[in-house]
Amino acid sequence: MKKGQENKQIPDHSYVPERPQKLSGPLDHVLQVLHILEKTYPDAHCALHFNSPFQLLVATILSAQCTDIRVNLVTERLFLSYPDADSLAEVDQTVLEDVIRSTGFFRNKAHSLIACARMIRDRHNGQVPSSLEELTELPGVGRKTANVVLGNAFQIPGMVVDTHVKRISFRLGWTKNTDPNKIEMDLGRILPEKKWVEASHLLIFHGRRICKAPVPICSECPVAPYCPKKGLKKSR
Ligand code: SF4
Fold it and tell me: Do 64 and 34 share a domain, yes or no?
């Protein structure tokens, strides 16, 4: 973590109430890409460790600007003392900051986690709500975090647009937008709802391994025949 990084703001996840529209238009191209990615990454899954919706929510908030590996190391210790909303709602902020320091932005994250735990305790009986609207009302929870929790803790379709999904969906020509909320709507229109969660994992896996920023390895990419490589200036 660079000096002074802890004082920066957690990236904004502004709330947009609509869910993506239902699927429309021809799907062959998109489904073919997904099919190839399924074969390429059969183990694509949520890499964060958790034993409850609350723990996934905490891990996802901590994962902003941090690797999943680092978050898993931190939460292994964190959840021993604070496994649920009731316990985390009572923690002293400086104590929590110390535990999560290595994830970066630790002051903002600690503040959000405690406020979030208190709202879940006081407004939702200690249980994480399972609707996009209620999740995005929680402090520190935007659509990306809410969709991670919906899809992986509640098995409710949610399209997660992180930096990998944003980059690859643009290169593939699946969206012309750069705003994550608009990209989520675009992907929601062209992908079947039952594929949203899996598609998110597949694109994230692909982004970490092949379709990297700033230079993707197109020569090794299994979906290259289907990719218009939009916005790409350089590749390997
Ligand atoms: S062909 Fe290149 S730009 Fe297109 S998805 Fe593959 S790695 Fe990414």
Answer: no
Residue 72 neighbours by CB under 8 Å, 6+ apart: 47, 48, 49, 59
Residues near 108 by Cβ (< 8 Å), separated by ≥ 6? 9, 10, 140
Q: What tens digit of pLDDT does each residue of 115-146 get?
A: 999 999 999 999 999 999 999 999 999 999 99
Q: Which residues contact 229 (CB under 8 A, 6 or more apart)?
A: 171, 218, 235
Active site residues: 144, 162
Question: Are the beta carbons of 158 and 132 closer than 8 angstroms?
Answer: yes
How many degrees, rounded to 5, is the angle at CA 165 between CA 163 and CA 169? 125
Closest-lying ligand 1 atom to the alpha carbon of residue 228: 4
- Pocket lining: 224 vs ligand 1, CB cutoff 6 Å: yes
What is the total count of domains within the chain?
A: 2
Reported pTM: 0.84
**Contacts of residue 16, Cβ cutoff 8 Å, sequence gap at least 6:** 143, 181
Which tokens sit at 82? 């604070």
Tell me: the pLDDT tens digits for 59-81?
999 999 999 999 999 999 999 99
Distance, CA of 88 to chain centre: 22
| Chain centre to alpha carbon of residue 91 | 26
**Rounded Cα gap, residues 109 and 5, in angstroms:** 12
Ligand 1 pocket residue status of 210, Cβ below 6 Å: yes
Same domain, 116 and 75: yes
Q: Are 75 and 49 in contact (CB under 8 A)?
A: yes
Domain carrying residue 173:
28-45+158-226
